[in-house]
Each structure stands twice: as C-alpha cells, then as structure tokens.
Amino acid sequence: MEEIGEVKVSLVNAYRVVIKGAVKRYGSLAALNDFDLTIEPGTFTVLLGPSGSGKSTLIRSIAGIERLDSGTIHFGDREIAGEGFHMAPEKRDLAMVFQDYALWPHMTSYENIGYALKRRNLDSTESDRRINEALDRVGLSTKGSNYPFQLSGGEQQRVALARAIVGRPSLLLFDEPLSNLDADLRERLRVEIATLTREIGATACYITHDQSEAFALADTIGVLQSGTLQQIGKPEEIYRNPANRFVTAFTGVSGSFLGTVESATAGKAIVVLGQYRIECRTSNSLKVGDLAEVLIRPSATSFTQSGSNTLPAIVLDVAYRGRGYEHVVECDFGVISSVFSPQSVARGSRVEIYVDPEGCIAFPTDKAFSPGAVTQSLIGIK
Ligand code: ADP
For a pocket test of ligand 1, which of 24, 32, 55, 57 has the largest count of ligand atoms closer than 8 A to its C-beta? Predict the structure, then answer.
C-alpha cells in the first residue's frame, strides 16, 4: 500500500480467485478431487495440509504449471483454465515463490529480479528504479551484484521475494517458501512476506504443512486432505469450530481420550471417562451412549487445585519455554502434552489438570474404549 494523505492505495488491482470442481489425476490417484475454493481479493489465504494432500498440485494449477483434467479457474472475470482451455502461466499476472528459491545461478540478484520485468516494456530508468526499490524492500540493497552462490539461503529467498513483487503482480503464490530455512530466519522472513504482500495489496495464496506458520500468516486458512478442502475460514473459526476430527487434529491437539457420551445437547456433551466426567463441545451428531473421542487443544489445559472438568495426573516431563514451562502429564487415560504454567512443576508431581470445555472437542468414534490406553497416534500432537 502507498499512503496518500490518510488513504491507503493498493499498488495492484487484486482480484478474486475462484476454483470450481477442479480435478487433477495422476493415474488412478486424484490429487485434486472436485476441489472448490474462493480466495477473496487482497486477502492472504494459507492452504494447510499434510504431505500428499494436494497443496502443490493446487498452487501449480493456479500458476498454470499444471493443467487441470476438469473444472475451472477464474481470476476476477477472466477464465484462465476451463473446458479445453489453459492460459499460459506468463499471461496470468501472477508471481510464485518456490521452496528451493529457483534463482538463475548465472545471474546476479539484480539480474534475477530484473528478469521478472522483461516483458513489462519499461524503460531502463524505471526498471532500474523498481529493481533497486525491490532490493531495498527486502533488505538487500548492498547485495545487488552478488550471485546466488554468494548469498545465504535466507538472502536467496529474499531475492526470490523481490523478484516476485517487482512486477507488482495481482496474485502472489507461495510454495512452502520457508521450509529450507533455519527457525529464527523462518520467523523473520515470515513477517517480511506478510508485510510486503499486504503492502502491495496483492491477493496471496500460500501453501504449507506447518500449522503454526499457517496461523501466523493467514487472513483465511483452508485445510486440505486427500485432494479436498475440508474447511475454510478465519484462523479463529478453524481453531474454535473445526469442521471435523481431521481438521481438529491437524490444527493442534495436545491429547485425546476415549469415553462414552452421557448427555449431548446444543453443541455440548458430557463424556464419561471411567470415573471422570468431562464437558466438551461437539457437533450435533453425538447421542447418549455413543462412544466418543475427545480431542484437547493445547490452549485448553492448565494446572488447578480442584473443581469440575479436572483430571488427576502425574507430571512426566517439563520444558522451559521462555515465558514459562510446558509440561507433559499422564492421566489414567493417556498423555497430555503442552500444559503451560508460568512456574515449573517438578517431574513426578501429582497434579490436577483443568480442561476448558471450549477447547475440548468430542467426535463420534468406533474405537474400543480401553482405560489406560495412551492415544497419542494423532497427527499434529505437539
Ligand atoms: P502436497 O503438496 O500436499 O504434498 P501434492 O500436490 O504434491 O501434495 O501431491 C498430491 C498427490 O499427488 C500425492 O499423492 C502425490 O504423490 C501425487 N502426485 C503429485 N505429483 C505427481 C506426479 N507428477 N506424478 C504422480 N503423482 C503425483
């Protein structure tokens, strides 16, 4: 965005991306299986899913690197993929940042960035101004004459980011751009990606398997599984009202238990776990007597003295996390990780764990109930 007086003006003409009924098969496998998605103009949408869920296939289809077998893609009013029609990637007014940077090794940073302006027919003064501005925006104004091999991984990804924004495309696509970087650099570059994208006002679509990255970046998160979109919404909605067990498990769970439903009304259920009764949230599909699997969000647990919705436990492990301590505790029914407390509680201590009903979500299950079983097989347990 550029500020004119009080008013912020987008540098690009961001459009809505609409994908309908997208199918992409590799042999008998449907990498995209009747996939629908709408990305609102100027928003930052993150598509989150495990490996093999179809994220790359989707983003490559939006970019035009892959051809859909069927379905349509529109950018605003423009159809860019449809029945027997496939617009070439270079005509799509978008830029993509790849996991492996994809820089030309024989070109300097300046030349790599300038390459993205080749088809813009800018005069050399304007092109030079834009390249230097892009280098400056990513903090590399002194590295314009360096070749990729003379740059660190983080710097190379910054060049790739500058190359993506220099042409001011209406759509920015990010294919796991932080995966090859160290943790602290990942964090810094993440903030830069979020800031720069919002500054130019482009629509952004970013794919990752990393739940914390998705929540940190997104205006909207879409969760993928096996080539289908399981849920799309604001991060808060996805976390608070996950559509199903898969979405819950993939967006952060610190423990799970099996029990029997004692009562279920209006989105709430009491699930009995042996001699304990735990209040949970639930969709309306559970009935009294059903077996239920209760998934617990990491944010829902804390140490307490006594009261309702508590479980006795023993501290198995404690880890210092800067602002406080994360504990792993074992209850009669399983292990809960990520119990946070400003104070450390010693290993072996007997404790009571409060489980906030808001972050405790019950789903129907056909798994057999076995007291003492540690059900840690969930994807996403942290
Ligand atoms: P993700 O990016 O979420 O890891 P992909 O889109 O790369 O998922 O892959 C989705 C599915 O399609 C996977 O099962 C993968 O093995 C398969 N797949 C992807 N690309 C090809 C290909 N070129 N040939 C055959 N199978 C592929």
Answer: 57
Are the beta carbons of 231 and 249 closer than 8 angstroms?
no
Question: Can you tell me the distance from the alpha carbon of 361 to that of 88, in angstroms, rounded to the nearest whole number?
Answer: 45
Is residue 61 within a helix (H) or strand (E), and if so which, with residue range? helix 55-63
Pull the structure tokens for residue 38.
Answer: 């709408």
55 Cβ inside 6 Å of ligand 1: yes
Q: What are the CA-CA distances from residue 211 to residues 49, 93, 169, 256, 350 (Å)?
A: 8, 29, 27, 18, 32
- 29 pocket-lining for ligand 1 (C-beta < 6 Å): yes
Distance 56 CA to ligand 1 centre (A): 7
- Cα–Cα distances (Å) from 159 to 93, 145, 149, 262, in that order, read 19, 12, 12, 58
For residues 270 and 278, is the Cβ–Cβ distance under 8 A?
A: yes
99 lines ligand 1 (CB under 6 A): no
The token pair at 12 is: 């690009």
Read out DSSP for 2-59?
Answer: EEETTEEE-SS----EEEEEEEEEETTEEEEEEEEEEE-TT-EEEEE--TTSSHHHHH
Strand ordering across the sheet containing 70-75: 29-39, 17-26, 70-75, 78-82, 85-86
Amino acid at 166: V
H-run or E-run covering 328: strand 325-331
Taking only the tens place, the pLDDT of each residue in 150-178 is: 999 999 999 999 999 999 899 999 999 99
For 67-204, where are the alpha helices, taking DSSP H only?
109-115, 124-137, 153-166, 183-200
Domains of the chain as residue ranges with CATH: 2-245 (3.40.50.300), 253-364 (no CATH)
This prediction has a pTM of: 0.88
Residue range 289-327, pLDDT digits in tens: 999 999 999 999 999 988 899 999 999 999 999 999 999
Cβ of 61 closer than 6 Å to ligand 1, yes or no, is no
Q: How far apart are CA 212 and CA 214, in angstroms?
A: 5
